[in-house]
Amino acid sequence: MLSLHKKVKRKIFSSTVFLAIVACILWATAFSGIKIGLRYTPPLQFAGLRFFISGLLLLPFIRQLTLKIAIAKKYWKQVVVVAILQITLQYTLFYTGLSLVPGALSAMVVGSGPLFVTLVAHFMLKNDRLTLQKSYSIALGLVGVVIISLSRKELTMDGSLLGIGIAILILNNGLAGIGNVVVSKTAAELPPLVLSSFSMIVGGAILYLFALPIEGFAHGPFPLEYFGALAWLSFLSAAAITIWYTLLNRPGVKVSDLNMWKFIIPVVGAILSWAILPNEHADALSIVGMVIIASSLLVLNLKVKFTKKVNES
Prior knowledge:
Elements: H1 2-13, H2 16-28, H3 30-37, H4 43-58, H5 65-74, H6 76-100, H7 103-111, H8 113-124, H9 132-151, H10 162-184, H11 192-215, H12 224-248, H13 255-259, H14 264-276, H15 284-312
Helix pairs in contact: 2-12, 2-14, 3-12, 4-6, 4-11, 4-12, 6-10, 6-11, 7-9, 8-10, 9-15, 11-12
């Protein structure tokens, strides 16, 4: 009986749903750390340093490191493509877009990421088509994100560069979709831990060097809270990205279905804000948005379970 209980627990903790939720919760905790880091370091430079450290943190966990380095060298083109797409370009666009778009509006655009990933997967992957049920699930998720964003009361439409900022964030979402598809196609060549480690090292280094002539060198002095934020962000990036790459490489896991779980990031972000920030508190609009997002994920999982039953019968 005890052995069966352990097997059930192991199955739950290693399941795609559980690990996807863990990765999204980790990503949701990044916002407070980023706010601290940006007090002392320009955004692109801070992001580059963060991901470079994240990649280094993973190296001790790679078994037969010498052999894996040889594999990474053999498939260096894939590593560089993922590094540039997922780290350098994405975070350059992300921070640039955020600087041009008000908080709530940027949260809506960034929160629509699963829609763009689904569209990219529909055109790039033969086994990941957009269905009516999936469209309904995405629509519910988007409504939930919009409601949570509106509840923060930061939506203003000032600034002549607003349209450019929105376009940049939409382009960022599209690149995220392409990056997810590219990662899912590397399963046969590169182990997820190797891909995540080397892509973050390469992508972080490129981003940091790219930022230096633009932002100037941030030389400190840096307080303890800066190093704490950098350490946490480096850890969560290493953990979340490795988990995500592992899930993208799992047989039967579709890119679009997996990315639907990213709808919970604004939910967790709002809950953390209520718990940590003194001026933030729960409100009816946010709770309604959370319920709608939960409904979208329920619709998705009912669809997945139904599909599995049909395939097994």
